[in-house]
Amino acid sequence: MTWAFIFLLVPTNAPSEWRCPPEAYADGFSCECGCGIADPDCGEANDRERCNNNFCAAGTVPLAHSAGICAPNTCGDGFVLKGVESCDDGDGAGCDDTCQFVTAGYRCSGLGAGCSVPRCGDGFPDRELGERCDDGNEEAGDGCNACQPEAGFVCRMFVGCTPTTCGNFEIEYDWDTQTGETCEDGDLETGDGCDDLCRTEPGWACNWEGCRPVICGDGVVSRGDFGGGEQCDDSNSDTGDGCDGNCQIEPGWQCDDWSGCQQAICGNLVISNGEQCDDGNRDDGDGCNGSCMSEPGWSCAWTAGPCTQVVCGDGVQMSDDTGTLFEGCDDANQNDGDGCDAGCRPEPGFVCDRDGCRQIVCGDGIIDVQTGGGGPFPIDAKPGEPVPPPPDGGGILTEETCDDGNDVAGDGCDATCRLEEGWFCEAPMQPCVRPECGDGKVEGVEQCDDGGVVTDDGCSDKCSREPGWVCRTAGEACEPLPSAWVCSVVFYGSGDGCDCGCGSRDPDCADEVVWSCDFNHCLESSPWPTVEDPAVCGMTEPPPQPEPEPGPEVVEEVDEVEVTEVAEVAEVAESEPTAPTRDEGCGGGPPGGAGLGLGLLVLARRRRASNP
């Protein structure tokens, strides 16, 4: 269904005073301003703060509470004229007299709402205030309480918070807000480093493979991939030296693994703990203020150096570091009707990415999703509000979750290209399938399928793997996971190679010897699988694999011609450089005794061991 086709379906009942496209009047999707009269979609107050599309001529702006009428723009009228003003507080507080600079400590609206002091509950996650989420309220139980994420939820910038599913082997984590799960070991048990809400427990460090206990003060920094663990380790448990007794960096200090901890200094081009930016000075108004905190309207990319101002229409899609400005698209202009509106937001019926915007067409075999940063955003969604689904029976699409090449419902992908409940669509233009639990085939969202639909046998009646079990082959019975196994269950007997350092022997290991290891899961604190039991980690590097005993020498008689040929081959071989052996260059250690060669590998992640 194309955008033009949608227009044909929308009746036009626009009054004669309406100067904008007739089909935009009371379309139920967006608030049009500057059209001569009020658009019912703007609400009874006809407030310009709700403007989605501004049709006022260049140099004019909608009037406050009479958004259908345009007037010449002036600094102090409360409306920000894009490309001319950076802020406008309506002669209030928060913006300077030239409407160019936001006063420190304020945030200004771009749609005539003036400026205000950021606060928890205003719908904007303010990092400088320590907010990690802001869903527009201060209520508990919805994922964001007092602007801090609640356990069991993951929060995304301008989208809101959603519950996580602990135990499904998927780490649900958002890098921008640093919220969500920080570990995932496939069970809901506590005391193993990853608790029943998939949070790293104190005294542990977790990565993709599992969790390991850490020892603060041993001089080894054991970090988790998603937070948790140690931030520093200065070989003591003292406070006041930059690294506290729990091996966390103290405020006002910066620590690294090489030079230890040093006190932070704003303006030295080094982003330290407690700083959001450092541009080499302590000036305000350049994106990084005198306290090395990010300023609204600027992006400092979390790296030391100059900051970049966010400008709608410059062709560079950006968002600032404070959550004040967010571009869902930027097509190098401020025109409406081309998919990216004058406020750099995707328009209804379009999806935008960094390559531009395109119309959504359900049934064309292309899954149209917003990838341009933070989407999907329907045009009338406000920051902090959840994205509503498309209207029943059609309407303007916000994005697709499937596209099977048609717009017919009942086949797994409905008429608006949304996935239907209970179905699985593997690829565009391919028929969707409805997984049937108990048929012995793992499909769609199924984690297992042992051919039955009973519980307490490792695979539930919904075909989800039950805690403490491993289901290795579809159609076959699951087996209890050894209690000593500390790595992710996905590595146990999965046929991917011999995993060592997991607390229990991997069925993939043909021989229970350290030289049969394909993957080493030991962490820095005990980096080596032991010779006695490769499932256990220790501090001693395994010795080189013993050379096999030479067999009895076989002496054969050869004629004179054969001896001459062998001699010639040997002579050529001595004159040419030899390829490095595994011990010398292919994953082993230094020449002459590399052995297992695990010392050259980064040991915090899953690693391929070297077999000499």
Description:
- The strands form 13 sheets. Strands 23-24-27 form a three-stranded mixed sheet, with no helix packed on it. It has a two-stranded parallel ribbon with strand order 1-2. The chain has a two-stranded antiparallel ribbon with strand order 3-4.
- The longest helix has 16 residues, at 560-575.
- Helix content is 4%, strand content 12%.
- It is globular.
- By secondary structure, it is mostly beta strands.
Summed up:
This protein is mainly beta. 4% of the residues lie in helices and 12% in strands.
Name the poorly predicted regions: 1-11, 372-397, 558-612
**Strand order within the widest beta sheet:** 23-24-27
What percentage of residues falls in helices of 4 or more residues? under 10%
Q: Whole-number radius of gyration? A: 31 Å
Order of helices and strands: HEEEEEEEEEEEEEEEEEEEEEEEEEEHE
Taking the alpha carbons of the first and last residues, their distance comes to 61 Å
Arithmetic mean pLDDT: 75
Number of helices: 2
Overall geometric form: globular
How would the blueprint of this fold be written?
Layout: H1 3-9, E1 32-33, E2 53-54, E3 60-63, E4 66-72, E5 107-108, E6 115-116, E7 144-145, E8 148-149, E9 153-156, E10 160-163, E11 173-174, E12 179-180, E13 204-206, E14 211-213, E15 253-256, E16 260-263, E17 298-299, E18 308-309, E19 350-353, E20 356-359, E21 469-470, E22 479-480, E23 499-500, E24 519-520, E25 528-529, E26 537-538, H2 560-575, E27 607-608
